């Protein structure tokens, strides 16, 4: 089974939800640069202080910092058998840097999954997205609400109150979408040229998307 996967898509396309499922199913680490950066901000580290204003305003943090975080994370032993990169790369310089990181490790990506969905749907989804600050589980008030309003379902989270991320507020979402179209979308060409890109309709239900991803991974593994 192929294990080096990048998941691409606009904010709210469902990358985090699908990356978590794949990670759980296959035992690959889920590397979300957004989660790593949020943890730095929450713990007020030196990196956290540098990046907080970029994140709050929906801009990308500098490429050098994003690449540094990923190169350090990939060096950890749990990445030896594979990993899912969620939210990285997000710009052409980051993709080129990832190409170098991989060639230094004598590795190659197995696939790049692109979740496609239109902006209006994303704006509505992000307005309704809630996250558990404890376990990171993602809910949507419209189509995947928690069992008890406002609280995480997981027993180990002990009723943790769900949060609406600062950068999921309407104005910031519009800026994040602009950044996605201008800076991240050119990666589609980058990975098409390498024959790695697989498109999945991000407007389908999470279950249907997960099935499509699994059948793609199975086909790649069998190839
Ligand atoms: P996400 O949770 O992936 O939507 O990321 C939240 C925010 O973290 C983004 O809006 C950026 O400010 C920052 N971020 C996450 N990943 C990257 C990256 N690869 N490059 C630059 N900034 C990033």
Please state the CA-atom Rg, rounded to the nearest Å.
17 Å
Provide the structure class. alpha/beta
List cofactors, ions and other ligands: adenosine monophosphate
Based on Cα principal axes, name the global outline.
Answer: globular
Question: Which percent range fits the helix content?
Answer: 40-55%
The proportion of residues in beta strands is 5-15%
Would you report the number of β strands? 7
Determine the number of helices (DSSP H or I, runs of at least 4 residues). Answer: 9
Instruction: Return the string of H and E elements.
Output: EHEHHHEHEHEEHHEH
Gap between N and C termini, in Å? 10 Å
Reported for the largest beta sheet, the result is:
5 strands, parallel
For the largest beta sheet, what order do the strands appear in spatially? 2-3-1-4-7
Overall mean pLDDT stands at: 93
Low-confidence stretches: none
């Amino acid at each position: 089974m192929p294990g080096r996967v990048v998941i691409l898509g606009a904010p709210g396309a469902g990358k985090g939800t699908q990356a978590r499922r794949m990670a759980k199913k296959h035992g690959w680490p889920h590397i979300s640069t957004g989660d790593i950066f949020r943890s730095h901000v929450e713990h007020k580290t030196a990196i956290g202080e540098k990046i907080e204003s970029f994140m709050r305003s929906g801009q990308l943090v500098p490429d050098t910092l994003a690449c540094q975080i990923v190169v350090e994370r990939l060096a950890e032993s749990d990445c030896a058998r594979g990993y899912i990169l969620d939210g990285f790369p997000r710009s052409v310089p980051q993709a080129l840097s990832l190409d170098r990181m991989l060639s230094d490790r004598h590795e190659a990506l197995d696939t790049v999954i692109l979740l496609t969905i239109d902006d209006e749907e994303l704006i509505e989804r992000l307005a309704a997205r809630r996250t558990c600050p404890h376990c990171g589980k993602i809910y949507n008030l419209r189509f995947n609400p928690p069992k008890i309003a406002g609280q995480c379902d997981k027993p180990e989270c002990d009723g943790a109150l769900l949060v609406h991320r600062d950068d999921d507020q309407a104005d910031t979402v519009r800026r994040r979408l602009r950044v996605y179209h201008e800076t991240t979308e050119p990666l589609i060409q980058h990975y098409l040229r390498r024959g790695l890109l697989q498109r999945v309709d991000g407007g389908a239900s999470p279950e249907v998307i997960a099935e499509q991803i699994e059948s793609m991974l199975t086909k790649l593994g069998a190839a």
